[in-house]
Specification:
single chain; mainly beta; 24-stranded antiparallel beta barrel; eight-stranded mixed sheet; globular
């Protein structure tokens, strides 16, 4: 009994010790250390060392396998961190090279802090053993800052020296700063994460466990004014152009910290010719293809504007709304000479930030130029067809942070196209409430959309819609669950600035899950979940979604990840979108399964793979999907990834066409095969100079063997209708992106880009993959060569020098 009691007391004291609130000392210094990675400056001798780290992964709460010591000091201009990562096998320290923000196979050190101590957001700065910098925020994965770091690998391990200027982030305007701080060290070869303040793996809010800054005081926010002027030359030849064009232009990106809380970003005359090419696909669905936005202004610092789900940034300076209608507006003998695929962005601005009392305000505005197609008549005269008027986009967001991650927000998006065009306004109000020490979460959202002809938003209109979203969930602990209910009436339409596929629906989602974050047997971690999604048409009450899903995810102690699941639709559903004419189609019952794997990324060679199969037992259709993606790292400089995926959809029933005379919808029995091959490679000479190559060939072939008339009851006519239309297709998209990136100074870069693209389609399916590849390569490509120079100017440093 004594032994049991002593054991209990020891375990309890250990648990209390691990979870006690820590403090982390900050030492003020007049003399700034030199950021060279050597940690030899005298100032470090006056700083208190921090060395009480714990394993977060893989053995939670255990003693780290290697010793770590960190010292932190600060001046009037920023924070300095000196970290010594001792290692008894320095030759085994992984240190793959990479460009800024690259994910590389390397050890790293990171500091993360929440200056406002609200436990809702934080800044993260990381440097690898090879010197690769990365930074982000909890609420903004694309947050970007200019800071300094240096690393050294030697016989005792490796060291890192970091300087983060106060101009790189915001903090409260008060004398004593009480930041929450976390320190991280990752030993890549062991997949071991050591941290200063141990975190509960099953708790939704890990910031509550972090240390509190000590002796950090009397700091002031400096002038935060950053300029990024650029000069760009683009040489381009499109498929429709007779010759090459040459354009030289310039522009400016500006970031100004209005005060310690709020920031303004402005882009003037931007150029996006060098952004990553879209992975274009053959879309047979009733919904548009949604692409990612790779334009820096539209993905950096945008998280606040996404509250309420009202913005899809590709709407801005995207394809004109009337682009595809030009052919239908031609008179006899006319031809299209020019039809711009993208509208031109004139300028864009965003104001955002959060005050010390937790009030966040964001305002976004963008203006695009009027877009016109040029049409040539038979006599040689030309006329213009407007495809989109000059358009103004606005979004306003107000968010109030409450205690314990709770919040309330209001969001409003407005699209204005002038007094004679269709304009839109969408609003959303909602919030999160966490209770029972953050164990449970309630989320509620209400939204309204309104579209009107002209600029009188108070006029009567039948284009006014509503939505509501409610969620209740247990978000902490090994066992979790959630219930989600959302409603959208038939007129809810935020698509002028956002994206929404389905309305006129009441949907419910239920999920239970269990995860085991601690190792057992040969398993490192595991999660299982079971869910059901059931939805009905608001106006008819007919089921539109009905599916059960089981999913699992596990990682072994050899760091092989395995995941997959099963799906089952036990009854027919009513699909109101596939017919394209307002009818419904009785969607078939199916069962599905998928299995996926990913090997250990620490190895020079790794591989990801997946296989899934869906069996539609109403009409004996089957769909196979296969993917394999090997990854090779050659030394510390070259990284190559090859990816191939293949789908084979046999006996699929899908929309074919709507009869123009009868407005009847016809479906087809089709065999669709799709293959995508892509290869990407990056050679990093040093961490600020790299060569990148990305190439992709996408091929899809559809062969219609039978056609069916869709009846009013949603059933397809079993006897093929007398249809003579040819709906067969072969579609391909081929592109090459090659770039040379040189970061010649902090925040400054020179980028040379070459882009080559071909999109081609035939109305037949008589060529296989290789035959169509040879055929399509004989067609003309679009080509682009661009050279862009961006220079970073910190006006605060310029003023300080003067």
């Amino acid at each position: 009994m004594k032994s049991l009691l002593l054991s209990f007391l020891f375990t309890s004291s250990l648990f209390i010790g691990l979870n006690a609130q820590k403090t982390i000392p900050f030492t003020f210094t007049e003399t700034a250390p030199v950021v060279d990675g050597l940690l030899s400056d005298i100032v470090w001798n006056d700083c208190q060392g921090i060395n009480t780290f714990y394993q977060q992964d893989p053995l939670w709460g255990s003693t780290p396998t290697q010793k770590t010591e960190v010292k932190i000091c600060y001046t009037n201009h920023g924070i300095f961190i000196g970290a010594m990562m001792y290692d008894n096998a320095p030759d085994s320290i992984l240190h793959e090279y990479g460009m800024r923000d690259n994910t590389v196979n390397a050890d790293y050190f990171a500091i993360e802090f929440d200056p406002y101590n609200t436990m809702q957001d934080s800044y993260y700065f990381q440097v690898t053993a090879s010197g690769v910098q990365s930074e982000w925020r909890r609420t903004d994965g694309y947050y970007n800052a200019v800071w300094k770091s240096a690393v050294k690998i030697f016989e005792k391990g490796w060291s890192a020296e970091v300087f983060i200027p106060f101009s790189a982030f915001t903090f409260p305007s008060k004398d004593i700063q009480n930041w929450r701080v976390q320190l991280n060290r990752y030993i890549r070869r062991n997949r071991e994460l050591d941290i200063l303040a141990l975190e509960n793996k099953t708790n939704d809010n890990d910031i509550q466990y972090w240390a509190i800054s000590e002796n950090l005081k009397s700091i002031k926010s400096p002038l935060r004014l950053f300029l990024n002027p650029y000069l760009n030359e683009v040489i381009e030849k499109r498929v429709t152009d007779a010759s090459w064009s040459n354009k030289i232009n310039g522009g400016l990106d500006l970031k100004w910290g209005v005060n310690q809380s709020y920031t303004i970003d402005v882009t003037l005359l931007p150029d996006f010719s060098q952004v990553q090419s879209d992975n274009k696909v053959k879309n047979l669905s009733a919904f548009e293809t949604v692409y990612g936005d790779y334009r820096p202004f539209f993905y950096e610092s945008m998280s606040l504007f996404k509250m309420g789900d009202l913005i899809y940034s590709r709407r801005i300076a995207g394809t004109p709304t009337g682009y595809y209608d030009v052919e239908n507006k031609l008179d006899s003998g006319e031809r299209v000479v020019e039809n711009p695929f993208n509208t031109q962005l004139i300028n864009a601005v965003k104001f955002y930030g959060r005050s010390t009392n937790g009030l966040a305000v964001g305002f976004f505005n963008a203006i695009t130029k009027k877009s016109e197609a040029v049409v040539e008549q038979s006599n040689g005269e030309r006329r213009f067809i407007e495809t989109q008027p000059l358009t103004n986009y606005n979004i306003l967001v107000i968010d109030k942070a409450l205690k314990g991650k709770s919040n309330l927000f209001f969001s409003n998006a407005n699209t204005y196209r002038g007094k004679t065009n269709l304009n839109a306004n969408v609003a959303a109000f909602g919030g999160n409430y966490y209770f029972s020490k953050g164990t449970y979460r309630i989320y509620l959202l209400s939204g309204m959309s309104r579209r009107v002809e002209g600029d009188n938003f108070y006029a009567k209109t039948n284009m006014e819609g509503y939505k509501t979203d409610f969620l209740f969930a247990k978000v902490n602990g090994k066992f979790q669950y959630q219930t989600n209910i959302w409603l959208k009436d038939k007129n809810y339409d935020p698509n002028d600035m956002g994206v929404n596929f389905v309305n006129n629906e009441i949907s419910t989602f239920y999920q239970v899950s269990y995860r085991e974050p601690d190792p057992f047997g040969k398993v490192l971690s595991m999660k299982n979940s079971l869910s059901m999604n059931y939805a009905t048409r608001w106006t008819t009450g007919m089921p539109t979604t009905f599916v059960f899903n089981y999913n699992f995810n596990t990682t072994t102690k050899r760091y092989i990840s395995l995941w997959g699941g099963l799906g089952w639709r036990p009854a027919n559903i009513y699909d109101y979108y596939e017919p394209r004419n307002g009818q419904f189609f009785k969607g078939p019952r199916f069962v599905s399964g998928n299995a996926n794997f990913s090997t250990d990324y620490r190895k020079p060679f790794a591989c990801d793979g997946a296989y899934s199969v869906t069996y539609v037992y109403d009409y004996f259709g089957i769909n196979h999907f296969f993917n394999i993606s090997p990854i090779a790292r050659i030394g510390n400089h070259l990284n190559i990834r090859y990816n191939v995926w293949y789908t084979n959809n046999i006996a699929q029933r899908g929309f074919a066409f709507v009869d123009e005379n009868t407005d009847e919808s016809f479906f087809g029995k089709r065999h669709v095969q799709t293959v995508e091959n892509s290869l990407s490679a990056q050679y990093v000479v040093i961490n600020n100079l790299s060569f990148g190559l990305s190439t992709r060939y996408y091929w899809s072939k559809g062969d219609y063997s039978e056609f069916y008339l869709l009846h009013q009851d949603g059933i397809l006519d079993r006897n093929p209708a007398q249809v003579t239309q040819n709906k067969n297709f072969t579609y391909s998209a081929f592109n090459i992106d090659f770039s040379i990136n040189w970061d010649f100074a902090p925040g400054s870069s020179l980028v040379l880009t070459y882009k080559n693209e071909l999109v081609h389609e035939l109305t037949n399916a008589d060529k296989n993959y290789m035959q169509y590849l040879r055929y399509s390569l004989d067609n003309p490509f679009s080509n682009l060569i661009a050279l862009k120079i961006i220079y970073f100017i910190d006006a605060g440093r310029v003023v300080k020098r003067k």
